[in-house]
Specification:
61 residues; mainly alpha; 2 helices; disordered C terminus
């Protein structure tokens, strides 16, 4: 029997908290360690939203 989504199971943008910089860096390292090559690594990081330049606030110049 297929499960049906209930209203309480829906995740909205307001429910998502920003990812801490250190957590994003750790996730990037894990993805890089298990990726077959650089293209796969970039693809996974992009899918997770933690690719280069996407994690953390912009650096001050």
């Amino acid at each position: 029997m297929a499960a049906t989504a209930r209203e309480n199971d829906v995740i909205t943008d307001d429910d998502i908290e920003p990812l801490a910089d250190e957590t994003a860096r750790q996730a990037q390292r894990v993805v890089a360690a298990y990726a077959q090559d650089a293209d796969e690594c970039r693809m996974f990081l992009s899918m997770l939203g933690i690719g280069p330049g996407t994690a953390g606030p912009a650096k001050a110049e």
